[in-house]
């Protein structure tokens, strides 16, 4: 079984998308902010094995303490010195999400600790705030934002994917399940032009 659900899909608050990846290792990718994610996890899976962060902007991590307290789980992320992160995920590390292994790609530019996760068979990309549907890309006007690095990170993700890619799970907005690689290409063009 491989099931990825956006628990924040119906929320009307300032939060990131919150992906529950169910399976052998049930993982929450980015706990989000300002809504009761704990009850949503309990109603879907009843349990949780880990929390994984794409990056540590508040809209992605505000609910972290509540989730870790409710499920007694550790938090994994790129920066082991961050207060919320218990375990480091290094660049090119393999991480289990649900029933599949994903390759972590360090993709700074939006934030220094930003990670994307590409499924081992290339079918799914958890993109955080690197790229969004319809050519959107992460803003670089916040602390640690760096537009040239963001472009390099988008290029890296584009190089790591091919036409096998079937779904792009972005940190905001809709999941892209029709020709997702074209949305990454469009994001790269848009970022280069801005």
From TrEMBL:
Source lineage: Archaea, Methanobacteriati, Methanobacteriota, Stenosarchaea group, Halobacteria
Entry protein name: MBL fold metallo-hydrolase
Keyword match Zinc: yes
Species: Halosegnis longus
One Pfam family recorded for the sequence: Lactamase_B
Statement: the UniProt record of this protein carries the keyword Hydrolase: yes
Superkingdom of the organism of origin: Archaea
A molecular function (GO) term: metal ion binding
Chain coiled-coil ranges: none
Chain ranges of the Metallo-beta-lactamase domain: 15-172
Cofactor field: Zn(2+)
Keyword terms: Hydrolase, Metal-binding, Zinc
InterPro entries per UniProt: MBL_Glyoxalase_II, Metallo-B-lactamas, RibonucZ/Hydroxyglut_hydro
